């Protein structure tokens, strides 16, 4: 009888990003967007009764996070795991490879890769084994095989075998120009990935993508999934869709697991618009361009005033937040490019 395992995979939630604890009412902040998308993914997992959830790292946006943000995130996690769905988290680089310690993080169905380790548990009358380790900051290229071995990959894993990482892998791409990682001490070689893994779930890169790694003697390529971030954190991501993966594995024969369903589920992401201010001759032209740049579906947009050339002195009045707020919907956030002030 075929067995199925449903996995929800998300990554790089960056909770706390643009989340001031004492916000000024007149300034739009995006902190709630990140929490809202995080909760949307967990609710989806509850709705479909997923067998497990994997978070690929960078739960928080930095290592030192205000206690109120930590407690809010951990309360959300604890409410979720009380449903009985196991949740696995890889500490990422923004957390400096370790999540903040709080009593709220302790629950028998909440598993942290706070050191190299393997977790195995019974699921759907079979075994699922997840191996992983926290983000490795130095020389992962030369140390990867040793760290992988220290997880117990070769000796403790069985059943459906999943490797959870927060690292760069050779062939992954990033940025508007599609930079491809190939060499460097922070890039894992494809050839060093475990040939007997059924899937690799990786965080760290904010662009969602799937890599196919071919091994001699293996019938199907090894799939590496990057879920990407759940919201845009920079203008380099302005054209990227944000979301998470719903994956279903089927077992037809012993140790023969195949992905029979993979779906990337989009999440709401604020539109990001670059307005090149050096194209205009007067503040009136800038005002008209601002109004024209915001379509009805983009009233939650983030507009960046940018330039590739020299800005005319008479445009100085546009480079003030008060001037912009009087001309834009209250829901729009405006940021200034560093290029404007060079």
Defining key terms:
alpha/beta, 6-stranded mixed β-sheet, 19 strands, 29% strand
Quick rundown:
By secondary structure, the chain is α/β, with parallel strands linked by helices. It has 6 helices and 19 strands. The longest helix is centred in the N-terminal third of the chain and has 18 residues, at 31-48.
Characterization of the model:
By secondary structure, the chain is α/β, with parallel strands linked by helices. It has two domains: 264 residues, Purple Acid Phosphatase, chain A, domain 2 (4-Layer Sandwich), CATH 3.60.21; 70 residues, no CATH class. It is 19% helix and 29% strand. It contains six helices and 19 strands. The protein has a six-stranded mixed β-sheet with strand order 4-3-2-1-15-16. Helix 1 links the parallel strand 1 and strand 2. The longest helix has 18 residues. The termini are far apart.
Write down the Rg. 22 Å
Identify the CATH class of the largest domain: Alpha Beta
Q: Return the CATH architecture of the largest domain.
A: 4-Layer Sandwich
The total count of strands amounts to 19
Which of globular, elongated, flat, extended, rod-shaped describes the shape?
elongated
**What percent strand?**
25-35%
Helix fraction by DSSP (H/I, runs of at least 4) = 10-25%
CATH superfamily placement of the largest domain? Metallo-dependent phosphatases
Measured distance between first and last alpha carbons: 66 Å
Count helical runs: 6
Q: Supply the helix-strand structural class.
A: alpha/beta
Low-confidence region ranges: none
Supply the number of structural domains: 2
